[in-house]
Structure formats: structure tokens, C-alpha cells
Design brief:
The protein contains 17 helices and ten strands. The chain is α+β, with helices and mostly antiparallel strands. Strands 3-2-1-4-5-10-9-8-6-7 form a ten-stranded mixed β-sheet, sandwiched between helices.
């Protein structure tokens, strides 16, 4: 672990290299907050105030006041951080390599996580099995009706305004986000997309002449698909005309079990999870207030049918082939690991406790905490990427090899272990790495300014 004063000095260079539009006197305060997060490995105010570096001892009340004052400052808002975060992510995340189904593209993952009374919608760049957040929207939970989709569309417009035009983008999202307004926005930005489709939502399959057929729910096409191969249907979303056209990809794929989960104990665990899912589906099914029609399936049969549908994957994609669509959708899963790192960690105790830090906070402070999480995640993930480079010095490589016997550590966990190394073997290398990456970032062109929130009329509406 680097001494606090050394880490603070290096991170001050990092803050200057990011090109944040902030007063010069505010940069030391932000560098101090970042060093407190990376030393204390928590976003809780108590952990931050104890890890906050100061040349002279300060009372705990003064430390709490310093941390509380930082949440109300504008430097941690998405309007300030969006351009620098995109610029830094583009600098280190290369496009997909040639030979892959999505060669030359960069995947942006759209997802959300619930933290107490807030729903945090994030947009991040997929990298090394994790996601680097570059933009976010915070909404109250329960979600007010009609606010999620407009907020997501504004977020996409803001990120597109600072995104380089020479980097192809492919948006990946789960089945909580599809809608005509979202697809119109993505198509207007010139991005590709792969979004998981809900089986109850309707599509219109295109005839060979290009004319859309009658609208039917996606489950109709799932029922006629083979479980042994992927199926691609050219469709137009929705029941009305002038919908966005793409490919409906339907399949189940092959069940692949990792090598470390192929023993009898893991098999018993999977069986218990499946039985628990069936039981939970029966318990949460609402009671019928009217008699069940003749011939209707019983709750047990309906639950089993729902679980059978869960085994299928239905994607709505701009990719022309199922290989590219499935390859892109795999990039959505890393956001779950990123959210787990931000909350409880891999074991419930080694995360950053973002959910606990946001609980009961007003909106302005919640934006500041999420902004600090995004900046610290960028730095820690970058350190985790550097500890596995082939040019690593032999003493550093020996220290990294002592962390685990299997090598199954995420890039975020590797960064945590490097920053909190108790033996000090990584101090010279870590200081040099942080200084070099800051110098590389400072040499890039300055980040573009993020636009203000777009007016409601500028977002494309459904016909």
C-alpha cells in the first residue's frame, strides 16, 4: 500500500490529467476523496473520513464536515464527469479485435441498480469482464410512471455528444429497457443495439417482400423454434407501422458449466436453486379473484411454463447474424459484477457499500457519491489491468501470483489487492504505474464539454 501522502500526490496528477472543468482549489479536495476511497475501500462516510489524508491530525467532526461538504460540490455531477470519463475509457479500452463477430465495435452496457430509495441507471464501457461507468441517471424508487424512458434517452444523447465519431458503438441492455422510443433514439444516433426482448411484447415478422406481417407476441415464435439451433427472423417491433426494424434472435444455446463447477456438490446446488425458483414462483403468484376458466393451466403448470420460457433467449438486435447478436449480449453480464463490487463485493463484505451510502441521501448528494464511485472504479480497474501485463517485473509478478491459486480474480479485485498490498512489495511499481497512466492521459486532447440536459421535444417520439 502506498503511503497516504504519496497516493494523494499521484492522484492529484490524475485529477489534473482528467481535464475536469473545476477550480484549481477544488482539485486537491477531489484528490483527497479519491485517495480515501482507494485506501479505505468503502464509500461510507465513516470510512472516508478516517481514510481522508491530512498533514495534521483533525477531529472526527471536522473530517465528517469535509466529507459532507464534498457531496454538494458540482465536480462530481454527470455534467462535469461525462466528458473526462468517456475520454479516459476510450484511451484504454480498445475496440473488439479483428476476427471476432463484432470486430471494431465498443460495447456500451445500459443497466440499473437499486440502492435504497434510488434507482441508479448507468451507461458504461464493457472491459475485462467489468464495466467502466461513464454516465448515469438517478431516479426515485418506486419509479414514477413515464420517467424512465425519457431519462434514458437523454442519457444516450449526452453520451453520444462527447463520444468520438470514429469509434463504432453497440448498445447492450436487458429486457427492462426495450421500447419504441429507445430504439428510435439509438437508431437516430447511428448506434447498433442488442436488447433482450420480453416474450409478451409483439413483433411483426417481415415477409420476403419487406412487408411486415400481423403482430404477434414473441412467445409465439419461441414455441415454434428448435432448442438445438438459433433462429433469426427479420422483424419490425410493435403493432403499429413505422416501427424500428431489426433481427429477432431466438435460441437456448448449449448449457456450459465452468470446470470448477462440474463436481457433485455444484450439481446439488444448481438443483436446489431450481427447486427454490419453482417454489418462489408458486408463492408469489397472485391469488385469482375470479374462477379459473375451463381448461386454463393450474398455477403449478403456469409456473413451470414460465420457467421453461426463462431458458430461452430472445434478442432484438441490429446485427445481421445470431453469432454477432449473442456475442454482443454476453457483454451485458459484466455490469452485474460491477454492481456487486460497488455494494457488498464478492463475499458481501469487501465491496464499497454504495447502497448503504446512498440510503436516505438527497438527490444532489446521491449524484456526488455515484460520481466518486465512477472515478474510483476507473482508477482501480486500470490498476487491475496493469498487474497482468506481460511486461510486468518479476518481483511484481511473483506478488500477484501469491494472491490466488486459481487465477479467477476480476480486474476490480486485482486492483483492490494491488492498492491494499500490506507487504509493500508493489509500492515502487504502483507509484510508477499511476504516474505513467496520468501522463498518458494528460497527453490526450482535452475532453469535450458535456451538453446540458436535452429538452423533452428534442427526443424522438413514437409515431
Amino acid at each position: 500500500m502506498l503511503p497516504p501522502e504519496t497516493l494523494y500526490e499521484v492522484l492529484l496528477r490524475w485529477v489534473e490529467a482528467l481535464g475536469l472543468t473545476m477550480h484549481a482549489s477544488a482539485r486537491p479536495a477531489l484528490a483527497g476523496l479519491l485517495s480515501a476511497v482507494l485506501i479505505g475501500q468503502s464509500l461510507r462516510p465513516a470510512a472516508l473520513m478516517r481514510a481522508l489524508w491530512s498533514p495534521t491530525p483533525l477531529p472526527a467532526r471536522a473530517r465528517y464536515a469535509r466529507v459532507a461538504y464534498a457531496w454538494r460540490r458540482p465536480w462530481l455531477t454527470p455534467q462535469v464527469l461525462l466528458g473526462p470519463l468517456v475520454r479516459a475509457a476510450i484511451a484504454w479500452v480498445p475496440p473488439d479485435p479483428p476476427g471476432s463477430p463484432t470486430a471494431g465495435q465498443t460495447h456500451l452496457v445500459l443497466d440499473s441498480v437499486r440502492c435504497g430509495t434510488w434507482e441508479v441507471v448507468t451507461l458504461g464501457v464493457a472491459w475485462h469482464g467489468r464495466v467502466l461507468p461513464v454516465g448515469w441517471v438517478i431516479l426515485p424508487y418506486p419509479l414514477p410512471k413515464g420517467r424512465l424512458t425519457p431519462a434514458v434517452c437523454r442519457l444516450l444523447h449526452q453520451v453520444a455528444a462527447v463520444w468520438p465519431t470514429n469509434r463504432a458503438v453497440h448498445l447492450v441492455a436487458d429486457r427492462g429497457f426495450p421500447g419504441r422510443r429507445l430504439f428510435r433514439t439509438v437508431a437516430a444516433l447511428g448506434w447498433g443495439w442488442t436488447v433482450r426482448w420480453r416474450v409478451k411484447m409483439a413483433v411483426r415478422v417481415l415477409e420476403p417482400t419487406g412487408t411486415p406481417g400481423p403482430g404477434q407476441p414473441a412467445r409465439t415464435w419461441v414455441a415454434t423454434s428448435s432448442p438445438h439451433r438459433w433462429r433469426v427472423l427479420p422483424v419490425e417491433e410493435g403493432l403499429r407501422g413505422r416501427g424500428v426494424r431489426g433481427q429477432l434472435v431466438i435460441g437456448r444455446g448449449l448449457p456450459v458449466v465452468p470446470w470448477h463447477q462440474q463436481d457433485a456438490g455444484s450439481q446439488r446446488h444448481r438443483c436446489r436453486r431450481q427447486q427454490h425458483a419453482v417454489h418462489a414462483g408458486r408463492q408469489t403468484r397472485p391469488r385469482r379473484k375470479t374462477p379459473r376458466p375451463s381448461g386454463a393451466p393450474t398455477p403449478t403448470v403456469a409456473t413451470e411454463q414460465g420457467l421453461a420460457l426463462e431458458q430461452w433467449v430472445v434478442l432484438f438486435s441490429s446485427h445481421p447474424t445470431w453469432q454477432a447478436a449473442v456475442w454482443s449480449y454476453r457483454r451485458r453480464a459484466p455490469t452485474e459484477g460491477t454492481y456487486r463490487d460497488a455494494q457488498g463485493g464478492w463475499d458481501g463484505a469487501h465491496g464499497w457499500h454504495l447502497d448503504a451510502a446512498l440510503r436516505g441521501r438527497p438527490a444532489a448528494q446521491a449524484h456526488g457519491m455515484v460520481g466518486l464511485w465512477a472515478l474510483a472504479t476507473l482508477i482501480q480497474t486500470l490498476v487491475g489491468d496493469q498487474v497482468v501485463q506481460p511486461t510486468l517485473p518479476a518481483p511484481v509478478a511473483a506478488t500477484v501470483a501469491s494472491w490466488t491459486t486459481t487465477g479467477r480474480l476480476s480486474v476490480w479485485a486485482r486492483g483492490r489487492l494491488a492498492l491494499t498490498d500490506p507487504h509493500g512489495h508493489l509500492r515502487p511499481w504502483l507509484e510508477t504505474t499511476l504516474r505513467d497512466t496520468a501522463a498518458r492521459l494528460a497527453a490526450l486532447p482535452p475532453p469535450p464539454a458535456a451538453p446540458a440536459t436535452l429538452p423533452r421535444a428534442s427526443i424522438p417520439r413514437a409515431a
